[in-house]
UniProtKB/TrEMBL annotation:
Keywords carried by this UniProt record: ATP-binding, Nucleotide-binding, Transport
Domain ABC transporter: 4-72
Top-level division of the source organism's lineage: Bacteria
Record has Nucleotide-binding as a keyword: yes
Protein's name in the database: ATP-binding cassette domain-containing protein
Pfam family, one: ABC_tran
Record's keyword annotation contains ATP-binding: yes
A GO term for molecular function: ATP hydrolysis activity
């Protein structure tokens, strides 16, 4: 039966900190934009307002570490994204460490500096978010991250600063920039046998006609489908002489400028520095 303001103050009472820090409270109220709801009963708050009050209460308790378990999962996208910025600002302003549990990859990469991926109750990969995003260490992790462009690769051999191997699914020879170790010192095992190669859909480069410059990993394929979403378009390409489907993600203006239609013949490139080697799961 407490008001929002009483709910926030209750945090110090629970921790037996009876001194009320008025300046901290005022700062939190202003940062979270909740001044107008302090006298309102908690039962009459919206989902977003309740989350803001809960954040104020947690910080007002004096905690320097906040553990947030799916904190925004029940909110609509617009409010959820708004609170991403609020959380980042709060962490910086009050020097907080955030441990966020979420199934939303975009949320994880927005809020986190380091990412840990748990699958089946086990840590499958952890490290700086740039490493996790661009260098998944296994097929299982790559699939969890929504990467479907995963192909078996065999007869891998080193040549200068690249690795060269045959991709039976694409029926092509691929060149891959030699992988570097991640920030934690880990990386895929490169063996002279079968491994896997992957590429994120946004890293596939499309050309309406043959590019004027010589380049590697350039192939032809047929546009099988084009699916538009609010932010981008997903183009499915079937490489020539291959049963596989390659997924390519483009911004809306990009796909419109290419004027793609189902059945069109198109050139696509898999950049050497965007391909990554994977361990089988």
């Amino acid at each position: 039966h407490m008001t929002a303001g009483e709910n926030i103050l209750y945090a110090q009472r629970v921790r037996r900190r009876l001194r009320r820090d008025g300046s901290l409270l005022s700062s939190l109220v202003e940062s979270l934009g909740i001044h107008h709801i302090l006298e309102r009963g908690v039962a009459h708050l919206s989902g977003g307002e309740r989350q803001r009050v809960a954040l104020a209460r947690a910080i007002f308790s004096g905690s320097q570490v906040l553990i947030l378990d799916e904190p925004l999962s029940s909110l609509h996208e617009g409010l959820r994204r708004e609170l991403w910025f609020v959380l980042r600002d709060l962490a910086q302003t009050y020097r907080l460490a955030l441990l966020v549990v979420t199934h939303d990859l975009e949320e994880a990469f927005f809020l986190g500096d380091e990412i840990t991926i748990l699958l089946g109750g086990r840590i499958r990969q952890q490290g700086e978010k740039a490493d996790v995003l661009t260098k998944p260490q296994s097929v299982e992790v790559a699939r969890f991250m929504g990467i479907r462009n995963l192909f078996a690769m065999e007869n891998i051999a080193a040549q200068d600063d690249c690795l060269i191997g045959r991709c039976p699914g694409l029926q092509q020879i691929l060149r891959i920039r030699k992988p570097t170790r991640q920030s934690d010192g880990s990386g895929p095992n490169v063996v002279k046998g079968q491994s896997y190669v992957g590429v994120r859909p946004e890293d596939v480069v499309l050309y309406r006609s043959h590019p004027p410059i010589e380049t590697t990993n350039l192939f032809q394929g047929v546009v099988m489908a084009n699916y538009e979403t609010r932010r981008n378009a997903t183009v499915l390409i079937q490489p020539q002489h291959s049963p596989l489907r390659l997924e390519c993600s483009l911004p809306m203006h990009g796909v419109r400028s290419l004027e793609l239609a189902q059945g069109d013949l198109i050139h696509f490139r898999l950049p050497e520095d965007k391909l990554f080697l994977l361990e089988d799961s």
